[in-house]
Amino acid sequence: MSERAVAGGANGGTWGSKGRVSDQTSPILVVDDDSCLARGIKRYLTLESRYHVDVAATGEQAIEHASQRSYDVALLDWQLDPKGMDGLDVCRCLCRNYTEMGIIFITAYDDVRDKILALEAGADDYLAKPFDMPELAARIRAVLRRLHCPDSESRPAQ
Q1: What is the pTM of this model?
Q2: Per-residue pLDDT band at 54 (split at 50, 70, 90)
Q3: Which 8-state DSSP code applies to residue 52?
Q4: Under 8 Å between Cβ of 31 and 90
């Protein structure tokens, strides 16, 4: 797969707040029912950016994965199994139960109203398909920086 995602690096090392060793890579959860795209994202992020990546094809699988492992970032497609949770439902659930996880929507929905809904549901970023893999990796790094920067209370006074 090329660096451009079909269908519509730097190491992302961890920071010690979740009990992981600091030289391990950040765990990422990809939630997309398009198995070809999910595999391509996993391959790129694993090989190029050295993240640990797990894949879930449904919202229910995503919640199950999140209950068993601490993820730094979830990449969510909006349209999942029509009989189950959609990406917006998954986003709300993850935000409610896993407050230290960053969420980036990766979806074919590119209307501004959809972007606003996702951001108001708790997403940290939104990337419309098709997208370039290096841009996705850069957005993941940006979310990780925001999530793991020290609180203003712990910063030294200037």
Answers
A1: 0.81
A2: very high
A3: E
A4: yes
Tell the residue number behind the tokens 């079909």, with chain if given: 6
Owner of token pair 């694993």: 46
For each of the domains in the chain, give its residue range(s) and CATH number, in order of start: 24-147 (3.40.50.2300)
**Coil vs helix vs strand at 87:** helix
User: ∠ CA(69), CA(101), CA(88), 5° rounding?
Assistant: 105
Cα–Cα distance, 42 to 52 (Å, whole number) = 8
Alpha-carbon distance of 81 to 34, in angstroms, equals 10
Q: What is the residue type of 141?
A: R
Measured in whole angstroms, the distance separating CA 22 from the mean position of its chain's CA atoms is: 20
Task: State mean pLDDT over 128-140.
Answer: 96
| Diameter of the chain measured on Cα atoms | 54
Helix (H) or strand (E) holding 121: helix 112-121
pLDDT at residue number 150: 64
